[in-house]
Amino acid sequence: MDIFLILIGFAWVLVASIQDLRKREVWNWLSFSLIITALAYRAFSAAYNSNIWIFVYGVLGLFVFVILGYALYYARVFAGGDAKLLFGLGVVLPLSASLVYNLIIFGGFIVLLLFAGSVYGLIYSFFLVLGNRKSFSIEFSKQLRKYQKFTLLLSIVAIIFIILPIFMRDIVFLLFPVIIFLLPVLYVYGKAIENSCMIKEIRTNQLAEGDWIYEKVRIGKKIVKPYWEGLSSEELKILRKYGRRVKIRVGIPFVPGFLIAFLILVYLVYSGVLLRFA
Question: What is the pTM of this model?
Answer without folding.
Answer: 0.77
